[in-house]
């Protein structure tokens, strides 16, 4: 695992990855459930509850992941 | 006689529609399947879609078997074993309190000794499905109490297996005490054999059902599971345990992930039929006679859950909000209570058990999400002295384990008793905070100067702790949340 990514086991659900974006205003956590569903938790500065939670299927997560990683090319 | 397809199809469809309507307001599905069965069954006035529930008994037992098989397959053995002694103490006190109170309640009702054991399990064991869904829906997966809650319900699942191993021989109608001891011994010996198979023979069992084709794997899997469940029932151990244990065996094979995926839709459909058929056997007219005991049982369950939540809160250093969340989230009752009710009905125990457990599950299904969502009001009235640290300022706030700045902690103790900047300027302060990165001491946000936050703005050091007597909570300025080290975490 790369630096700045922290793992928390969630028994029966899966794993949560907390990502240090090095930013003082935004922070995300990704929950990977055992059934493949991903929950993207988005936190904003100064709020203890997430400001958005986006639920994605494995397929949708792959798409978003490709876009984020810059490996998606439209023909 | 064959069940009428039209009636059965309509019943399943209506159950699904009811459950879907319930999901719109975040209610769990299990009670709605049961409710459809109750409303459209022979025991309730009005339209009857299935007049003879016994015609569906094979489908219903398939539902029960697949439900427990899936539980076994996805049981997170390593995560539970790796989570430490504290969790077992928390889960043990949760189970002890709830099942113990349930047993006393059962005996107090005076319906009979076996009935009391069924009530103890039905009142004491919460629904992992309902609890997990609540945590996801309430967006609490980053909360400090969430791994504790998940750990408790997983250990409860394990307890369920042991409880079934004890209960099935009890309900089998053994004639003498000697015979009963023999049957309980046999039941646990069978458990040990299956554990041994899980430990040493998993690879072999995997070979029996292995196939590259999903179609064949699904068929072989269902055949094996039903066979093991059936053999278990023949031996006098319940089919439920057999299914759970063979699930644990499969979980140790490389087939685990595929089996988990394949069994899921089967489980969902047939488990729904199981809940439906249970509902069909309930006579709505009996609800009146059990209403008072149900009300008392629900109140008792809420109390024992809150107490268990406080114990977990103490053990894990949670604040009021965290402790309240534990107690009020683990409150959901569902599939396991209904499994125990079915066992009781099959064993010919007191007729009131069915309607009692049905109504109990229905009431808690509606109240538990409401209570869990409003945990902050409970947090407000829990006295500080019940939990370890004093949480005066932060009792209602969520503690997060998702802070990524914990690696910036260098220093955690200080014996400073003054804010140096306030001393210089001659101002007063209310409380003291300490920077966990450099140890600088400053005054809190209720003080005129709020030097602690000023220190964060100047240096970017994100974390502080309270220096007040007996308080040890930590706050991250960047996250704007109370934070703590996650339990059993691998921080890299
Ligand atoms: Zn932080
Ligand atoms: Zn500092
Ligand atoms: Zn000051």
TrEMBL record, chain A:
Pfam families: KhtT_N
Highest rank taxon of the organism: Bacteria
Domain Potassium/proton antiporter subunit KhtT-like N-terminal: from-to ranges: 5-71
Protein name stated in the entry: Potassium transporter TrkA
Organism: Verrucosispora sioxanthis
The organism's taxonomic lineage, starting at the top: Bacteria, Bacillati, Actinomycetota, Actinomycetes, Micromonosporales
Automatic annotation (TrEMBL), chain B:
A Pfam family hit: Na_H_Exchanger
An example Gene Ontology molecular-function term: zinc ion binding
Chain ranges passing through the membrane: 56-75, 87-111, 117-136, 148-168, 180-202, 237-255, 262-282, 294-316, 328-347, 353-373
Record GO cellular component, one term: membrane
UBP-type domain ranges (all copies): 401-492
Record localization: Membrane
Keywords: Membrane, Transmembrane, Transmembrane helix, Transport
InterPro entries reported for this sequence: Cation/H_exchanger_TM, Na+/solute_symporter_sf, Znf_RING/FYVE/PHD, Znf_UBP
GO biological process: proton transmembrane transport
SMART domains cross-referenced by the UniProt entry: ZnF_UBP (SM00290)
Superkingdom of origin organism: Bacteria
Chief localisation class: membrane
Mode of membrane association: Multi-pass membrane protein
Cited PANTHER family: K(+)_H(+) ANTIPORTER SUBUNIT KHTU, SODIUM/HYDROGEN EXCHANGER FAMILY/TRKA DOMAIN PROTEIN
Similarity-based family: Belongs to the monovalent cation:proton antiporter 2 (CPA2) transporter (TC 2.A.37) family.
Protein name: Cation/H(+) antiporter
Biological source species: Verrucosispora sioxanthis
């Amino acid at each position: 695992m790369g630096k700045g990514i922290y793992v928390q086991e969630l028994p029966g659900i899966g794993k949560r990855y907390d990502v240090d974006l090095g930013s003082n205003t935004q922070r995300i956590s990704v929950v990977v459930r055992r059934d493949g569903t991903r929950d993207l938790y988005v936190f904003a500065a100064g709020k203890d509850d997430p400001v958005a939670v986006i639920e994605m299927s494995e397929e949708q997560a792959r798409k978003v992941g490709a876009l984020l990683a810059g490996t998606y090319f439209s023909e | 006689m064959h069940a009428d397809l039209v009636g059965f199809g309509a019943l399943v469809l209506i159950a699904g529609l009811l459950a879907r309507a319930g999901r719109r307001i975040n209610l769990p599905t299990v009670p709605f399947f049961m409710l459809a069965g109750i409303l459209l069954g022979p025991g309730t006035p009005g339209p009857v879609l299935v007049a003879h529930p016994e015609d569906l008994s094979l489908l219903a037992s398939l539902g029960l078997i697949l439900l427990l098989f899936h539980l076994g397959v996805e049981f997170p053995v390593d995560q539970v074993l790796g989570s430490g002694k504290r969790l077992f103490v928390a889960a043990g006190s949760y189970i002890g309190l709830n099942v113990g109170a349930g047993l006393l309640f059962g005996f107090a009702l005076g319906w009979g000794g076996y009935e009391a054991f069924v009530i103890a399990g039905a009142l004491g064991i919460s629904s992992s499905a309902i609890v997990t869904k609540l945590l996801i829906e309430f967006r609490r997966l980053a909360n400090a109490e969430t791994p504790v809650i998940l750990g408790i319900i997983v250990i409860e699942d394990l307890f369920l297996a042991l409880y079934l191993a004890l209960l099935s021989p009890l309900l089998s109608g053994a004639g003498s005490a000697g015979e009963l001891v023999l049957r309980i011994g046999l039941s646990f010996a069978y458990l040990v054999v299956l554990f041994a198979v899980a430990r040493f023979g998993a690879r072999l069992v995997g070979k029996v059902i292995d196939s590259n084709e999903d179609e064949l794997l699904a068929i072989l899997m269902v055949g094996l599971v039903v066979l093991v469940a059936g053999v278990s029932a023949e031996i006098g151990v319940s089919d439920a345990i057999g299914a759970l244990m063979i699930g644990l065996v499969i979980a140790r094979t490389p087939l685990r992930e595929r089996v988990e995926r394949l069994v899921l839709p089967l489980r969902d459909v047939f488990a729904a039929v199981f809940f439906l058929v249970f509902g069909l056997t309930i006579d709505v007219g009996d609800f009146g006679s059990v209403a008072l005991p149900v009300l008392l049982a629900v109140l008792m369950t809420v109390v024992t859950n809150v107490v268990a939540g406080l114990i977990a809160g103490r053990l894990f250093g949670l604040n009021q909000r965290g402790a309240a969340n534990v107690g009020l989230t683990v409150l959901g009752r569902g599939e396991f209570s209904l499994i125990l009710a079915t066992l009781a009905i099959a064993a010919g125990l007191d007729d009131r058990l069915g309607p009692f457990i049905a109504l109990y599950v229905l009431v808690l299904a509606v109240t538990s999400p409401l209570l869990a969502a409003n945990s902050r009001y409970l947090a407000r009235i829990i006295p500080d002295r019940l939990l370890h640290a004093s949480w005066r300022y932060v009792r209602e706030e969520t503690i997060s384990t998702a802070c990524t700045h914990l690696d910036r902690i260098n220093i955690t103790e200080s014996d400073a008793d003054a804010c140096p900047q306030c001393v210089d300027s001659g101002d007063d302060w209310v409380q003291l905070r300490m920077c966990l990165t450099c140890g600088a001491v400053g005054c809190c946000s209720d003080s005129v100067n709020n030097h602690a936050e000023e220190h964060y703005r100047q240096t970017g050091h994100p974390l502080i702790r309270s220096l007040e007597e007996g308080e040890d909570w930590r706050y991250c300025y960047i996250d704007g949340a109370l934070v703590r080290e996650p339990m059993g975490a691998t921080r890299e």
